[in-house]
Amino acid sequence: MSSDPQATDASGNSLPLSGIRVIDFTQVMMGPVCTQMLADYGADVVKIERQGAGDLSRSTFAPVAGADNPIFCSLNRNKRSVALDLRDAGHMAAVKALIANADVVVNNFRAGVMDRMGLSFEDCKALNPRVIYAVGTGFGEGGPYAHKGGQDVLAQAMTGVMARRADDAIPVSIYPTALADYSAGMHMAQGILLALLHRSRTGVGQKISVSLYNSMLAMQMQEAAMIMMKDSEVNWAAMPLSGTFECSDGVLVLVGAFKANPLQDICAALQIGDLSQDPKFCDLNQQFANKPELQGIFRSCFKSNTRDHWLARLEAQDLLCAPVRDLREALVDPQTLHNQMILKGQGEGQAVSFIASPIQMSDAPVALRRPPPRLGQHNDEVLAETAAARVKPPGCAPVATPELAAAK
Asked: What CA–CA distance (Å, rounded) separates 99 from 108?
């Protein structure tokens, strides 16, 4: 298979996915966060974009940064962009030639879109029996919601995630980070890696499918098991010894768990009498029953001094606690910097900064090998490589070189 010639680390060592070519039809977040993970570890990800428009995220909050739109940049480093009109026969032939020489094809269109274009799993398998075909949808490829537009917030709403709150008095609201997109994207990356491992043993490709809906259900595996097996609700945010508490200069979070008598230790930190000896708070059932009164005592204490004061006292009792901070604070935290979670480099129009991969491999550090591409930046390069290859994998259709030349 053709590979990205730059798929090495800073020392020139081959990255884990070097030699793997991915034809990437994805856009927005679920698909791109998956293919960026593959690209970070050496895969040659060829991003197929709509001619003249490209990935929808290129224009999200535009024109915040011109060629280097932060939303697009955050999801598309280490990839190459080919801009084509798939309604054009020559361009479609070029795409099929790319698929014939690829390892993985990824899309996150609505169910049926790839089929209508003649790029279904069966179509791609006819071109390339070894191909791994990854599909990401909102709700699944079949069933009552298969053709409903899928989106992160809808998946939160329809799977029970949005309804889960620390207290019923809190209004239902949208979770402000794309939980479904990210988790489904990571599930898709896992599926692709599993399929690559399977192919290395069998020589056969396969189709994998993930959805926002399934990923949100999977995220609630503990809560779901309690409902299905015991007809009982569990809400980790509603535990009586946990919560967010305002101090005189900020907010902290406390998790009173994983100790024999966490309430006793909380009281010691707050310098109050041991409430675990009070019949109203003597066990978990009583703590739940009298939670408003119990947490009212906590809140009164915490407001009397600074956040750092109380964090120090809680940590002295070996209680789980942390300051509640905003993202700006987290990005400059010494732990963030120590963990090398900020990746910087030069984009097409300005300096760019990203969150790095959370997976740290001792022999495969993630680097910015390629900045997020301009739309169609690599048309000539990628299509020329495919035309020059001409050697097809066993059982694959011949590469259509005249159409490739026309598609440039």
From this structure: 16
> Is 80 exceeded by the pLDDT of residue 392?
no
Question: Domain boundaries in the chain?
Answer: 21-220+337-407, 251-323
Residue 97: how many CB atoms within 10 A of its CB?
26
Exposed / middle / buried, residue 108 (Cβ in 10 Å: 0-12, 13-18, 19+): buried
Q: Please give the pLDDT value at position 348.
A: 85
3-state secondary structure (DSSP) of residue 39: helix
Q: What average pLDDT score do residues 211-224 get?
A: 98
What CATH fold (topology level) applies to the domain 21-220+337-407?
A: Rossmann fold (3.40.50)
- Is the Cβ–Cβ distance between 4 and 18 less than 8 Å? yes
CA distance 139 to 147: 8
Instruction: Name the DSSP letter for residue 229.
Output: H
Q: Judge if the upstream peptide bond of residue 63 is cis by omega within 30 degrees of 0.
A: yes
The three-state secondary structure class of 131 is coil
Contact 67, 348 (CB under 8 A): yes
**DSSP 8-state assignment for residue 192:** H
8 by Cβ neighbours in 10 Å (0-12 / 13-18 / 19+) ranks as: middle
Q: Measured between alpha carbons, how far is residue 256 from residues 12, 168, 251, 319 in Å?
A: 48, 21, 16, 7
With tokens 């799977």, the residue in question is: 159
Confidence of residue 388 (pLDDT cuts 50, 70, 90): confident
Paired tokens of 342: 């900020």
